[in-house]
Amino acid sequence: MKTAESTAPNRDTPSTPRTLVSRIPDDAVEVDFHAEREQRPDIWQTALEESVEISEAGRPDLFLVDASGEIPANCSLAEREDGHVGWCSCAQFDEHGVCFDLCAIRQAAVIDDVSIPVARD
Predict the structure, then answer these.
(1) Which residues constitute the domain of residue 54?
(2) Closest by CA position to 47, among listed 61, 71, 72, 67
(3) Does residue 2 sit within a domain?
(4) Is residue 16 domain-resident?
(5) Residue 108: inside a domain
(6) For residue 82, is it within any domain?
(7) What is the total count of domains within the chain?
(8) Distance between alpha carbon 14 and the CA centroid of its chain, in Å?
(9) Which of 17, 47, 92, 111 has the most CB atoms in a 10 Å sphere around its CB?
(10) Distance from CA of residue 81 to its chain's centroid?
């Protein structure tokens, strides 16, 4: 099981340079994962509990999220100075602006399973 996102820095892990991306999808939206965890805990918790496979896809901000028995989702997630910006091909993203897939990517990044790039403004 993955751990919940911690706001405390990990002082034991050396800082590594982050990949920069200059372009993100035009329909990407700002995503506040802390607010989503509080306002929609069901989505955040489902992402913690489900078994997913996340693979990188072509650009540093693109990911393919494959949940058990689901159609894989194409996602984009990048970090900005003031938070994150993301996009996903799933219906849940279209309805809510955040989804299970983006939460799963963010959770995987916290435990260093994937690397989320930094978006240039």
Answers:
(1) 28-119
(2) 67
(3) no
(4) no
(5) yes
(6) yes
(7) 1
(8) 22
(9) 47
(10) 15
